[in-house]
């Protein structure tokens, strides 16, 4: 499994964009201005197109790093043998929209130029809304985020007539172990200056990681966004718009839940997390038959919480390693400040389970926040 490191492209030609707006969007728009937007950790670039004409006052232009680059995900994926014929973002957007999930409307995809013209959902992420609105915003929006997650997990199913790429790949042991190894390489080895790791400690880590990967991979799988957190949810009127879903795959129900509630960017009160987990369990049970509820551990709060916590450990370790990778490989240090919070989640979850104490002890010499 590999990760794309394609360089960021030069800005697109305004003349090409102006022509496209006039001729390819159904309703002609005249380009007034093009505003570059702050990027994320990906190789894609985004621009806001201010236009003159009826309808939307602006559009979002997503520029791919390479018109053919969509064939390789920026995240490691399983199902490497799957032949990709369509831009994953568009392939996954379609069933999300059909299921009633609030996602950006597609206006046009210029596959030759690698430009995607999308509905503008605004600038306010859930993260920003909470920074401005505090506890009231948390109470207002997180239940909506949970309900959206339930709809995704219940409604999105494989369909032969319009196959979604997400259902051809999933969190198997190999992929989960790749993410654990990503943490060991960047979150431990690179972060501590490439100093050797004690062989005994490394052995404990890899054996425990493998056991955790087998446990997570053995769970029933649902459609999984893979990056469902406060910076990928847009406050859009009374709805939360979902973005950045192109790496969707099959995974345990707790993966997206852990991404949202153990968010690297937003610390939530433990009692509120308990409340949201209960909302998720009850919402899922209302939609599923009893046998499926039992298989997914939804009827056993202790077992489900254990699965949630172990998924959180895996997800947060991967994120911590990823943040170092983004700094060292992509030259973007903006996520380094989120590492202490992310690793703090991991330590507290490891302390909840005696069987994971050897892993905590083995990692502690290499995690400065735990010392």
From TrEMBL:
<protein>
    <submittedName>
        <fullName>Phosphotransferase</fullName>
    </submittedName>
</protein>
<dbReference type="InterPro" id="IPR011009">
    <property type="entry name" value="Kinase-like_dom_sf"/>
</dbReference>
<dbReference type="InterPro" id="IPR002575">
    <property type="entry name" value="Aminoglycoside_PTrfase"/>
</dbReference>
<dbReference type="Pfam" id="PF01636">
    <property type="entry name" value="APH"/>
</dbReference>
<feature type="domain" description="Aminoglycoside phosphotransferase">
    <location>
        <begin position="34"/>
        <end position="281"/>
    </location>
</feature>
């Amino acid at each position: 499994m590999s990760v794309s490191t394609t360089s960021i492209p030069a800005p697109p030609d305004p003349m090409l964009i102006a022509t496209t707006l006039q001729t390819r969007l159904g309703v002609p728009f005249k380009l007034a201005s093009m505003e570059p937007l702050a990027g994320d950790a990906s190789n894609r670039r985004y621009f806001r197109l201010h236009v003159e004409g009826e309808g939307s006052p602006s559009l979002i232009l997503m520029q791919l790093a390479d018109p053919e680059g969509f064939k390789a995900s920026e995240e490691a994926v399983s199902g490497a043998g799957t032949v990709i014929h369509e831009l994953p973002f568009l392939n996954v957007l379609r069933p999300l929209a059909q299921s009633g999930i609030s996602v950006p409307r597609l206006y046009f995809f210029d596959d030759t130029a690698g430009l995607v013209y999308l509905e503008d959902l605004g600038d306010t992420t859930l993260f920003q809304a909470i920074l401005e609105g505090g506890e009231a915003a948390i109470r207002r929006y997180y239940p909506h985020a949970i309900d959206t997650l339930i709809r995704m997990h219940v409604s999105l199913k494989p369909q032969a007539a319009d196959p979604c790429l997400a259902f051809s790949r999933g969190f198997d042991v190999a992929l989960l172990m790749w993410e654990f190894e990503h943490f060991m390489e960047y979150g431990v080895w690179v972060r501590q200056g490439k100093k050797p790791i004690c062989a005994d400690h490394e052995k404990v880590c890899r054996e425990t990681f493998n056991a955790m990967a087998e446990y997570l991979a053995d769970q029933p799988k649902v459609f999984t966004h893979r990056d469902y957190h406060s910076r990928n949810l847009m406050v859009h009127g009374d709805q939360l718009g979902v973005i950045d879903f192109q790496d969707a795959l099959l995974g345990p129900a707790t993966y997206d839940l852990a991404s949202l509630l153990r968010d690297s960017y937003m610390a939530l009160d433990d009692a509120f997390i308990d409340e949201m987990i209960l909302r998720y369990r009850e919402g899922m049970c209302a939609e599923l038959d009893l046998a499926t509820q039992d298989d997914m551990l939804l009827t056993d709060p202790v077992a489900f919480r254990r699965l949630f916590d172990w998924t959180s450990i895996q997800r947060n370790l991967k994120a911590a390693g990823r943040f170092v990778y983004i700094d060292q490989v992509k030259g973007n240090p903006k996520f380094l400040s989120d590492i202490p919070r992310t690793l703090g989640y991991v330590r507290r979850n490891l302390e909840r389970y005696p069987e994971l104490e050897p892993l905590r002890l083995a990692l502690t010499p290499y995690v400065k926040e735990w010392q």
